[in-house]
């Protein structure tokens, strides 16, 4: 039976020791991608929050750094963001050193215990050594609590269109927009979200930024909005809205103005991608929107069967904004840097599938560290069912039901599940958002996670699992006649 280090991913970021949740403060500077994270260094469950820190040159392999920000008498350090203040608008710069400014939530546990409602406020800290060490601003908090219990997770972006800093902040059942010239003084500009979209839980960890619509000069603003619970397949989930921003107010596109609880605008439909946000300060000429999420779910995150460490991040992803008719959707695919780790590969065209057919086994490609891409040019079957299995009888089932236009992912027999009733009590599903004749997919496998990107990233599903033994085989079965998979390619990913 596998445990702890056997379960530690080969390439998804995990903290060396103890607890991690949301990604925080991500920025790119001087060749390095920085990733901070909600961290409790003293136990494997949630506790007094610190900002852990890791760096990478490519967002794929990470090096953990000393803890960056510690809680203090004002409270725990909750989620937030960081920006590179290239023009020293904050005045924190010194001797020509560019300040990095972190904007986070102070969560005062004493206020919470006392039953008050104003124990979350927004604060800043700055770094003059490229994010290694931080000095908290003496004027904190920069935004006081107006009497809203859930008032947190500030995400700041430089809005070059209106020449201002813009902050989006989650406030219970909505998000608030603030603007600033110096990162210290903030003005409330507007709010969005009451009664729009999914509200099965508290809104948390928003992100807000402009994006080009693929293949055009059109710019739209995207609001990424996590909520917990109320996710598409239960528990934590991340929805999004697309619209316009006039420098003060966000107006969603017509199609999204009356969005109800049930909708298909989710960054990821699986159960394990939460609180994800994008990197700041990616060079303009690169222009990518790069995203990472916490690969777990509050329903069971603190109970998963690892002891010495808990939780991983998703693989870094590139987001794109696509338009079809009047509707806009966000697509995501693994950041292209992952391809630099491809080693052994296997490619085949016109694979005949009859009954259950083996596609790959672990003697060819190690399925605990693999990238698999497939393409079926014409969907003639009703059900395309993939199965990962091992000799212990564990199996992970996923696929596409063409009669329902629905993807599915079933981890109920994928190894250890009994640590939580919410882990595998139901099969996760996701709508197909493409009407193409064929289907393509990217499958990213690590020891304890699967990330599925269908239809060029239009439908994404991420979930974790804990098999008793590594996967030994990937097969596919058809319920109807023989068919052929037009192309499959598989790569072992190698990290050392
Ligand atoms: C989301 C969240 C945030 C909060 C942080 C605390 O997972 O609840 O809203 O800032 O975690 O660790």
What does this structure look like?
The protein has 496 residues and is an all-beta fold. The protein folds into two domains: 331 residues, 5 Propeller (Tachylectin-2, Chain A); 153 residues, Jelly Rolls (Sandwich). It is 3% helix and 48% strand. It has three helices and 33 strands. The strands form seven sheets. It has a six-stranded antiparallel β-sheet with strand order 22-33-24-29-30-31, with no helix packed on it. The chain has a six-stranded antiparallel β-sheet with strand order 23-32-25-26-27-28, with no helix packed on it. A five-stranded mixed β-sheet has the order 4-3-2-1-19, with no helix packed on it. A hairpin with a 6-residue loop joins strand 13 and strand 14. The longest helix is centred in the first third of the chain and has 5 residues. It is globular and about 70 Å long. The mean pLDDT is 97. The structure holds beta-D-fructofuranose. Beta-D-fructofuranose binds next to strand 1, strand 5, strand 9 and strand 13.
């Amino acid at each position: 039976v596998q445990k702890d280090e056997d379960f530690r991913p080969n390439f998804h970021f995990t903290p060396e020791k103890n607890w991690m949740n949301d990604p925080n403060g991500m920025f790119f500077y001087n060749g390095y991608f920085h990733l901070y994270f909600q961290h409790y260094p003293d136990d494997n469950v949630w506790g007094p929050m610190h900002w852990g820190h890791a760096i990478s040159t490519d967002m794929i392999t990470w090096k953990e750094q000393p803890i960056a920000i510690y809680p203090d008498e004002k409270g725990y350090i909750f989620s937030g963001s960081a920006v590179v203040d290239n023009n020293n608008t904050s005045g924190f710069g010194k001797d020509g050193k560019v300040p990095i400014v972190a904007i986070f939530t102070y969560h005062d546990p004493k206020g919470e215990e006392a039953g008050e409602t104003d124990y979350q406020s927004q604060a800043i800290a700055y770094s003059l050594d490229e994010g290694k060490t931080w000095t908290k601003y003496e004027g904190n908090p920069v935004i006081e609590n107006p009497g809203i219990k859930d008032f947190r997770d500030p995400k700041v972006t430089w809005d070059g269109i209106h020449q201002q800093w813009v902050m989006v902040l989650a406030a219970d059942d909505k998000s608030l927009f603030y603007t600033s010239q110096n990162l210290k003084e903030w003005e409330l500009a507007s709010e969005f979200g009451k009664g729009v979209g999914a509200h099965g839980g508290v809104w948390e960890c928003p992100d807000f930024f402009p994006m080009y619509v693929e293949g055009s000069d059109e710019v739209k603003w995207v609001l990424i909005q996590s909520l917990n619970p109320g996710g598409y397949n239960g528990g934590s989930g991340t929805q999004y809205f697309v619209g316009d921003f006039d420098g003060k107010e966000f107006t969603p596109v017509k199609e999204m103005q009356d969005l109800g609880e049930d909708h298909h605008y989710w960054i990821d439909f699986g159960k394990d991608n939460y609180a994800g946000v994008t990197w700041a300060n990616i060079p303009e000429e690169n222009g990518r929107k790069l995203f990472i999420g916490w690969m777990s779910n509050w329903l069971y995150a603190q109970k998963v069967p690892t002891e010495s460490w808990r939780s991983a991040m998703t693989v870094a992803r590139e987001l794109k904004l696509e338009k079809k008719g009047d509707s806009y959707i966000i697509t995501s695919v693994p950041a292209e840097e992952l391809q630099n780790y491809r080693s052994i590969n296997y490619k085949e065209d016109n694979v005949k599938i009859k009954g259950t057919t083996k596609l790959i086994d672990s003697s060819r490609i190690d399925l605990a560290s693999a990238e698999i891409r497939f393409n079926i040019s014409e969907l003639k079957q009703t059900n395309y069912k993939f199965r990962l299995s091992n000799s212990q009888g564990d199996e992970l089932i996923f696929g596409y039901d063409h009669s329902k236009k629905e993807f599915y992912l079933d981890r109920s027999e994928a190894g250890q599940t009994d640590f939580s009733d919410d882990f595998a009590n139901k099969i996760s599903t996701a709508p197909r958002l493409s009407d193409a004749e064929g289907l393509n997919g990217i499958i990213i496998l690590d020891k304890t996670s699967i990330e599925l990107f269908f239809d060029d990233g239009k439908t994404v599903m991420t979930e974790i699992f804990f098999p008793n033994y590594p996967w030994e085989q990937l097969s596919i079965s058809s319920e109807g006649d023989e068919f052929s998979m037009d192309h499959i390619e598989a790569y072992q990913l190698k990290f050392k």
